[in-house]
Amino acid sequence: AQSVAQPEDQVNVAEGNPLTVKCTYSVSGNPYLFWYVQYPNRGLQFLLKYITGDNLVKGSYGFEAEFNKSQTSFHLKKPSALVSDSALYFCAVRVPTLSGSARQLTFGSGTQLTVLP
Amino acid sequence: NAGVTQTPKFQVLKTGQSMTLQCAQDMNHEYMSWYRQDPGMGLRLIHYSVGAGITDQGEVPNGYNVSRSTTEDFPLRLLSAAPSQTSVYFCASSYGRWQGPHEQYFGPGTRLTVT
Questions:
Q1: Which one of A4, A43, A94 has the shortest CB-CB distance to B90?
Q2: Do A109 and B42 touch (CB under 8 A)?
Q3: pLDDT for B5-63, tens place per residue?
């Protein structure tokens, strides 16, 4: 079975400081990893994904994430946080199968990021 | 390009009532899915479809039905609403029948309360 853990329910950071939102996963095989963001009363929006290749992935709004296979982690980072980054962030994982299909997407429980002015 | 649309945005039902949550996408995506979001539990997959006429169950399918008669539409039916179905429901779609590395596009959600 595949699973995703976001160990922090809440992350607070001051505006201008770097931010990190943590994600670890447990899968059999090589995963596809995703980050989504949810603003209040909105649907989820795609931020970035890791498929293969370079471990550092860059995405929307200045976010990036680092894939670490040995630590089974995919932490989301941003060098300088903005108040407008305050939102709920979800990590998700999917494992491709030999046939080319893939298991369904499994989401973490979410991390509420608050950037303080 | 409207993306993924959902109606209604809010709904209150009494226990035992039935209703249909509508979902439509205009991106010609083959894959569509329904999730429910509950506090502290992330999103859980209810049902999904890999094309017109093809549907399958996800993680939490009990109490819900789906059908996919066209590529664009994927309605979710609650047969007999229960308070445990109080949740926020999201419809999503993605390119490709078997997903692979493709990201999903989400609708704005339907907030359902069952009393």
A1: A43
A2: yes
A3: 999 999 999 999 999 999 999 999 999 999 999 988 889 999 999 899 999 999 899 99
